[in-house]
Amino acid sequence: MITNSTPLESYSPASKQLSPAYFSRLIAPGALLLLWQIAVWQGWLDQRLFSSPIQVAQTLWQLARSGELGEHLLTSLWRAGAGLALGLVLGVALALVAGLSRQGENAVDALLQMGRTLPHLALVPLFILWFGIGEAPKIGLVTLGCIFPIYLNLFSGIRGVDRKILEVAQTLGLSRSEQILHIILPGALPSFLVGLRYALSIAWLSLVVGEQINASSGIGYLAMTARDYMRTDIIMSCLLVYALLGLATDALVRHAERRLLAWRPSVLKS
User: Fold this and answer.
1) N or C: which end of the chain has fewer CB within 10 A?
2) Per residue, what are the HEC states of 96-143?
């Protein structure tokens, strides 16, 4: 716990030693992998339909050594990054319009509230008709999935800023733009980061579906091709890659959260 005598600048979460509680988080996944492997060894699971962890690891190593995994991974990262960037720009812009004025809320909020109830993954046939079978529908699917969590969380964060603080700012003579820059946006940052974490998870989910739209590369394409040859080891390897990508990107946002929100007591005590 950080006391008043500890300077904030000297605190760094990265400098803390890994606690036993951190390693205890690995017990459940490790036990699951062990049980999975034992079930395959004992014949409780058919290895042709449910590849063992050892076989999945060997397949991943072979794909990495051949360069095939890296090629497909770069393509998937580009698609996810492009879709997420577009979703961020649109989601943030719409949240600012709706969050900073009643007129803006009346203009865009109802449309977005209706749009978020639509299952965006079910729009694949329409995306193909609208954008063809190239990269556009794949990136567009990721973009559409990312807009709503960014918008909803940032909008909530903007509207959740303490009005008493804004009244004090007005008393001190801060202009509207200064209030937005120095009070409203920093106050909404925690909500925005929560929305970003949700958007990242939805981005990978959307990409799994998007890369099955007449794709010739990408992790989803690799899994779809493996399905035709009943290569469950490759399919499960691809699913593992998606899971690791999701975990890695979430960890990056959490790391940024610790640095950007170091002023919050909840972060200082973690």
Assistant:
1) N
2) HHHHHCHHHHHHHHHHHHHHCCCCHHHHHHHHHHHHCCCHHHHHHHHH
